[in-house]
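Data availability (excerpt). The following record was deposited with the supplementary files.
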Amino acid sequence: MKEKLLNGWTQHHEDEKNNLKQEIGKLKDLISISVQAYLSPTLKERIKRWGKDLLFSFVSLLLWFGLFFLFGKIYPPFKAFLLGQLASFIATP
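Predicted structure:
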């Protein structure tokens, strides 16, 4: 009886181990595919990434200028401070 239970448990354990090995193999394949696509992107993917970068940079700049404009309207000394900082930044070589 003990041997039968032990054999059943061993078989169940081996089945689980094999299933986990298969799942790990599938995950490794998926990871390698995604990493490979990232490391050697096609021209279409590169253009898509550049487009996203430019879009987010442009949106970010618009938000910053909008924020500075809003603060300049609400608090005029802030506008003078920003202009002074900009002038000193431009003046330094």
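Summary of structural features: The chain has a mean pLDDT of 85.
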